[in-house]
C-alpha cells in the first residue's frame, strides 16, 4: 500500500515539476523573442538612411560609426550575429 502511495505522489510531483519547467521555458522563449525583436528594430532604425543622407553619405557613415561605438550590446558573439544579420556573411 505504501508503495502505491509513493508512486502516485512521485507521479504528481513529477507532473507538477514538468508543468513549471514548461511554463518557465515558454516565459524564457517569449522574453528572448521580445528582446530579439527590440534589438532588430533598434538596428533597423539606426541603419535606415533618410533622404537627406543620400546627399551627405559622410554624415551617414559618421552616425553609423557612432552607433557601433555606443551600441547597447558589447559582447563579441552578439556583434558577430548582428553583422551576419545586417551584412550577410561579411565579417
Short description:
This protein is mainly α and 91 residues long. Helices cover 85% and strands 0% of the residues.
- According to DSSP, the number of beta strands is 0
Structural class: mainly alpha
**Poorly predicted tracts of residues:** none
End-to-end separation? 66 Å
Strand percentage lies at under 5%
Kindly report the average pLDDT value: 76
Order of helices and strands: HHHH
Describe this structure in words.
- The protein has two domains: 1-46; 49-91, no CATH class.
- The protein contains four helices and no strands.
- The chain has helices spanning 2-47, 51-55, 57-70, 76-87.
- The radius of gyration is 24 Å and the shape is rod-shaped.
- The N and C termini lie far apart (66 Å).
Keyphrases for this structure?
2 domains; 91 residues; 4 helices; single chain
Strands, helices and their partners?
Blueprint (H helix, E strand, L loop, with lengths): L1 H46 L3 H5 L1 H14 L5 H12 L4
Amino acid at each position: 500500500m505504501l508503495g502505491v502511495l509513493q508512486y502516485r505522489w512521485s507521479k504528481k510531483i513529477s507532473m507538477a515539476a514538468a508543468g513549471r519547467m514548461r511554463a518557465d521555458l515558454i516565459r524564457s522563449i517569449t522574453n528572448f523573442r521580445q528582446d530579439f525583436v527590440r534589438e532588430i528594430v533598434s538596428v533597423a532604425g539606426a541603419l535606415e538612411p533618410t533622404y537627406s543622407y543620400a546627399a551627405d553619405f559622410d554624415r551617414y557613415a559618421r552616425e553609423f560609426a557612432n552607433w557601433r561605438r555606443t551600441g547597447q550590446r558589447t559582447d563579441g558573439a552578439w556583434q558577430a550575429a548582428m553583422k551576419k544579420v545586417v551584412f550577410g556573411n561579411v565579417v
